[in-house]
Amino acid sequence: MNTEVGKVYLVGAGPxxxxxxTLKALRILEKAEVxxxxxxxxxxxxxxFPSSSIxxxxxxRAGQHSATQEEIQDLIIxxxxxxxxxxxxxxxxxxxxxxxxEELLTLRKHKIPYEIIPGVSALSAGSSxxxxxLTHRGLSRQVLIMDGHTVLQEDTDWKWFAEFKGTIALxxxxxxxxxxxxxxxxxxxxxxxxxxxxxxxxxxxxxxxxTSLGKIIEEGLSKQSSGPGIIYIGPVVHLIxxxxxxxxxxFASQGEEL
Length: 258
Fold this sequence. Notes:
Elements: E1 8-12, H1 23-30, E2 34-37, E3 54-57, H2 69-81, E4 86-90, H3 100-109, E5 114-117, H4 122-130, E6 143-147, H5 158-162, E7 167-171, H6 177-186, E8 194-199, E9 207-212, H7 213-219, E10 229-233, H8 245-248
Parallel strand pairs: 1-4, 1-5, 2-3, 2-4, 6-7
Antiparallel strand pairs: 7-10, 8-9, 8-10
């Protein structure tokens, strides 16, 4: 029986396209004895898994049966205590809505050696693929990341959000975007504030839907696919257009050149 504890790697695989995986992530993956991968990865990732490795799909998707976080952590601990090299392959970056912090605390609790490999977050991949920046001189100097699952359940300062001078990125928010838009409008946000829904960031079937807070109240905002989506709220979304200077002047900060 192997009494030596194996090492665990929490690896960010990027937003879905394997070409956005880092060289270090690929090198770690190639030596993995056990791989636990989630739902946000394209099936082409399987080509990079060693044929000798033990592979577990532990994806989480809304409305579908999936492994619980506790079950995933139990698998990580069990295999590492068997002396195996374990890779927890996570979509995007492990520490951006990836539950990486929970797995990190579990590893520390059990005194299991680990290493964290950062990945390209869907946060930046989504905006880049759609053709607009997260920050832009005169429009946005800060980015706010929100969780659409819980923001309506918490004691949220909606006036502060409505007055936020930057880009709001909403993860897991398509089911709550109408309510969120109403909260923002009720607290002073402009009905013309542009909104983009980016689905399947970095993949061939990436799709971008552009609208505004006011139109969302009137028409809603629905996903066109079963893949993951990120919602961006802010004037930078106007930069998708071919002539952004004509669209963004009303949102520019006073005293700054665009």
